[in-house]
Design brief:
Elements lengths: L1 E2 L3 H13 L11 E2 L2 E2 H19 L16 E2 L1 H15 L2 H9 L1 E4 L7 E8 L2 E8 L5 E4 L2 H4 L2 E5 L9 E4 L4 E5 L1
Antiparallel strand pairs: 1-4, 2-3, 5-6, 6-7, 7-11, 8-10, 9-11
Length: 175
């Protein structure tokens, strides 16, 4: 177990930002050794969880929960988030935007908010990351307010034109 203020959020924020950077041709989430890579990873995680749960004799909660009262996180919670990112990368539309989409910084004036957009064939994918432990203001384009959030660090998010990003908040939205 790891502990620390915003440790999980900062790890997820960096993972989201880096995993959704430009892809390379052939990195389409396709087959690896004859299996669909994201599905195989998820199956492996599920098997590991099932084995751990049966070893705990009737445990009703997962064996890797974050002990948020002490600020601890488990390695498994990060792996689960990576699984979510891998599944997102395997989406042909998202992958196409990341591999071939035009890159544009969305907040170049802010040293603590790393935001960028990928656009291709009329579709746009925006990734926003607050790389600070302080809440920060962010102006979200009106068209992205109506977009679909595809992944987020915090479980609840409300898109508005004038957002107050929480510490290490990161999300990706598709229009």
């Amino acid at each position: 177990m790891m502990s620390g203020s915003y440790l999980l959020e900062s790890a997820k924020s960096m993972a989201l930002t880096l995993q959704l950077m430009q892809g390379t041709p052939g990195m389409d989430g396709g087959a690896a050794m004859g299996q669909d890579r994201p599905a195989a990873v998820c199956e492996q995680r599920a098997e590991t969880a099932a084995a751990g749960a049966s070893a705990e004799k009737g445990a009703q909660t997962p064996v890797w929960p974050a002990d948020q009262a002490r600020g601890e996180i488990s390695r498994q919670s990060l792996l689960d988030f990576y699984d979510q990112l891998a599944l997102l990368r395997s989406d042909p539309l998202i992958n196409g935007l990341l591999v071939n989409g035009e890159f544009k910084l969305a907040a170049p004036e802010d040293a603590h908010v790393f935001a960028y957009e990928r656009s291709l064939s009329g579709r746009r994918f925006l990734i926003v990351s607050n790389w600070s432990k302080e809440p920060l203001d962010f102006a979200l384009g009106r068209d992205f307010v109506e977009g679909k959030v595809r992944v987020t660090v915090y479980p609840e998010i409300v898109l508005t034109e004038k957002m107050r990003l929480r510490p290490y908040e990161a999300f990706a939205v598709l229009v």
